[in-house]
Design brief:
With about 170 residues, the chain is an alpha+beta fold. It is built from five helices and five strands. Helix content is about 30%, strand content about 25%. The protein is globular, with a radius of gyration of 24 Å. The model is unreliable at about 5-30 (pLDDT under 50).
Length: about 170
Protein backbone atom coordinates (compact mmCIF):
# COMPACT_ATOMS: atom_id res chain seq x y z
CA UNK A 1 0.00 0.00 0.00
CA UNK A 2 1.31 3.43 -0.90
CA UNK A 3 1.76 5.96 1.93
CA UNK A 4 -0.69 8.36 0.23
CA UNK A 5 -3.42 5.68 0.11
CA UNK A 6 -2.86 4.77 3.76
CA UNK A 7 -3.24 8.43 4.76
CA UNK A 8 -6.54 8.75 2.85
CA UNK A 9 -7.88 5.54 4.45
CA UNK A 10 -6.78 6.62 7.93
CA UNK A 11 -8.34 10.07 7.50
CA UNK A 12 -11.62 8.60 6.23
CA UNK A 13 -11.69 6.11 9.09
CA UNK A 14 -11.08 8.83 11.69
CA UNK A 15 -13.80 11.01 10.14
CA UNK A 16 -16.24 8.12 10.27
CA UNK A 17 -15.42 7.28 13.88
CA UNK A 18 -15.70 10.96 14.88
CA UNK A 19 -19.07 11.32 13.12
CA UNK A 20 -20.35 8.17 14.82
CA UNK A 21 -19.22 9.31 18.27
CA UNK A 22 -20.74 12.76 17.85
CA UNK A 23 -24.04 11.27 16.68
CA UNK A 24 -24.11 8.76 19.55
CA UNK A 25 -23.27 11.47 22.09
CA UNK A 26 -26.04 13.73 20.75
CA UNK A 27 -28.58 10.92 20.95
CA UNK A 28 -27.55 10.05 24.50
CA UNK A 29 -28.00 13.68 25.57
CA UNK A 30 -31.42 13.95 23.94
CA UNK A 31 -32.71 10.71 25.41
CA UNK A 32 -31.18 11.01 28.87
CA UNK A 33 -33.09 14.13 29.90
CA UNK A 34 -36.64 13.06 30.66
CA UNK A 35 -39.20 15.83 30.27
CA UNK A 36 -40.99 14.77 33.40
CA UNK A 37 -40.34 14.65 37.12
CA UNK A 38 -40.17 11.13 38.55
CA UNK A 39 -39.65 11.90 42.26
CA UNK A 40 -41.68 14.05 44.60
CA UNK A 41 -39.50 16.94 45.81
CA UNK A 42 -38.66 16.68 49.50
CA UNK A 43 -40.25 19.13 51.92
CA UNK A 44 -42.93 20.42 49.53
CA UNK A 45 -45.59 20.43 52.28
CA UNK A 46 -43.62 23.19 54.03
CA UNK A 47 -43.53 25.52 51.02
CA UNK A 48 -45.46 28.80 50.92
CA UNK A 49 -48.89 29.28 49.38
CA UNK A 50 -49.01 30.81 45.91
CA UNK A 51 -52.74 30.48 45.36
CA UNK A 52 -55.80 28.26 45.74
CA UNK A 53 -58.15 27.03 43.04
CA UNK A 54 -61.58 25.51 42.66
CA UNK A 55 -62.10 23.57 39.45
CA UNK A 56 -65.57 22.50 38.46
CA UNK A 57 -66.80 20.40 35.54
CA UNK A 58 -65.36 16.90 35.39
CA UNK A 59 -62.68 17.67 37.99
CA UNK A 60 -64.72 18.99 40.93
CA UNK A 61 -61.43 19.75 42.63
CA UNK A 62 -60.02 22.00 45.30
CA UNK A 63 -56.37 22.76 44.92
CA UNK A 64 -53.63 24.57 46.71
CA UNK A 65 -50.59 25.76 44.79
CA UNK A 66 -47.32 25.94 46.71
CA UNK A 67 -43.88 27.19 45.78
CA UNK A 68 -40.38 26.68 47.07
CA UNK A 69 -38.40 29.76 48.15
CA UNK A 70 -37.03 30.35 44.64
CA UNK A 71 -40.52 30.27 43.09
CA UNK A 72 -42.01 32.51 45.79
CA UNK A 73 -39.23 35.08 45.33
CA UNK A 74 -39.78 35.07 41.55
CA UNK A 75 -43.54 35.51 41.99
CA UNK A 76 -43.11 38.38 44.46
CA UNK A 77 -40.56 40.16 42.27
CA UNK A 78 -42.39 39.45 39.01
CA UNK A 79 -39.36 37.64 37.60
CA UNK A 80 -39.94 36.04 34.20
CA UNK A 81 -38.77 33.65 33.11
CA UNK A 82 -38.68 31.86 36.42
CA UNK A 83 -35.11 31.08 37.54
CA UNK A 84 -33.71 27.57 37.51
CA UNK A 85 -34.49 25.82 40.78
CA UNK A 86 -38.04 27.19 41.05
CA UNK A 87 -40.52 24.44 41.89
CA UNK A 88 -44.29 24.77 41.94
CA UNK A 89 -46.56 22.13 43.49
CA UNK A 90 -50.31 21.76 43.00
CA UNK A 91 -52.06 19.60 45.58
CA UNK A 92 -55.51 18.53 44.41
CA UNK A 93 -58.38 17.19 46.48
CA UNK A 94 -61.96 16.26 45.86
CA UNK A 95 -64.28 18.68 47.60
CA UNK A 96 -67.01 17.72 49.98
CA UNK A 97 -69.63 19.66 51.89
CA UNK A 98 -68.71 20.59 55.44
CA UNK A 99 -71.59 19.38 57.57
CA UNK A 100 -70.12 21.18 60.57
CA UNK A 101 -69.90 24.54 58.75
CA UNK A 102 -73.24 24.11 56.99
CA UNK A 103 -75.02 23.62 60.32
CA UNK A 104 -73.82 27.09 61.30
CA UNK A 105 -74.72 28.63 57.93
CA UNK A 106 -78.08 26.90 57.81
CA UNK A 107 -77.60 25.74 54.23
CA UNK A 108 -75.25 23.71 52.05
CA UNK A 109 -72.69 26.33 51.04
CA UNK A 110 -69.39 25.34 52.63
CA UNK A 111 -67.03 22.91 50.96
CA UNK A 112 -63.71 21.61 52.24
CA UNK A 113 -61.00 19.34 50.85
CA UNK A 114 -61.98 15.69 50.72
CA UNK A 115 -59.77 12.84 49.64
CA UNK A 116 -56.54 13.77 47.84
CA UNK A 117 -56.63 13.09 44.10
CA UNK A 118 -53.17 14.00 42.82
CA UNK A 119 -50.09 16.16 43.21
CA UNK A 120 -48.51 17.94 40.27
CA UNK A 121 -45.09 19.56 40.06
CA UNK A 122 -43.29 21.90 37.72
CA UNK A 123 -39.52 22.04 38.17
CA UNK A 124 -37.54 24.75 36.38
CA UNK A 125 -34.24 23.61 34.89
CA UNK A 126 -33.68 25.39 31.59
CA UNK A 127 -30.97 22.95 30.45
CA UNK A 128 -32.35 19.62 31.63
CA UNK A 129 -35.88 20.40 30.42
CA UNK A 130 -35.02 22.54 27.38
CA UNK A 131 -37.33 20.47 25.17
CA UNK A 132 -40.34 21.48 27.31
CA UNK A 133 -39.72 25.18 27.72
CA UNK A 134 -37.34 24.74 30.65
CA UNK A 135 -39.90 23.03 32.88
CA UNK A 136 -40.06 19.40 33.99
CA UNK A 137 -43.58 18.20 34.73
CA UNK A 138 -44.63 15.63 37.32
CA UNK A 139 -47.99 14.12 38.14
CA UNK A 140 -48.43 11.73 41.04
CA UNK A 141 -51.60 9.95 42.14
CA UNK A 142 -52.96 10.16 45.69
CA UNK A 143 -50.65 7.29 46.73
CA UNK A 144 -47.55 9.09 45.45
CA UNK A 145 -47.06 6.91 42.38
CA UNK A 146 -46.03 8.73 39.19
CA UNK A 147 -48.42 8.92 36.28
CA UNK A 148 -47.65 7.02 33.12
CA UNK A 149 -45.72 8.60 30.27
CA UNK A 150 -48.87 9.01 28.15
CA UNK A 151 -50.42 11.37 30.70
CA UNK A 152 -47.16 13.23 31.28
CA UNK A 153 -46.79 13.89 27.56
CA UNK A 154 -49.94 16.05 27.77
CA UNK A 155 -48.43 18.48 30.30
CA UNK A 156 -46.22 20.60 28.04
CA UNK A 157 -48.79 20.98 25.23
CA UNK A 158 -51.35 22.07 27.83
CA UNK A 159 -48.97 24.70 29.26
CA UNK A 160 -47.66 25.94 25.90
CA UNK A 161 -50.43 28.55 25.48
CA UNK A 162 -49.07 30.24 28.64
CA UNK A 163 -45.70 31.09 27.02
CA UNK A 164 -46.05 34.76 27.99
CA UNK A 165 -46.02 33.76 31.67
CA UNK A 166 -43.24 31.14 31.30
CA UNK A 167 -45.76 28.27 30.95
CA UNK A 168 -47.34 29.06 34.34
CA UNK A 169 -51.09 29.64 34.66
CA UNK A 170 -51.29 30.34 38.39
CA UNK A 171 -51.10 33.95 39.49
CA UNK A 172 -49.65 34.85 42.86
CA UNK A 173 -52.21 35.68 45.52
CA UNK A 174 -50.40 37.78 48.15
Amino acid sequence: MKPKSALVIATATMAGVTAYLLTAAGQADENSAAVYVTKIPAGYRDWKVISVAHEEGKLQSLGIVLGNDIAIKAYREGTLPFPDGAIIAALHYSHVPSDENNKVFGEKQSFVPGAPTNIQFEVKDSKKYAATGGWGFGHFNANGKPADAALLKTCFPCHEPAKASDLIYTHYTP
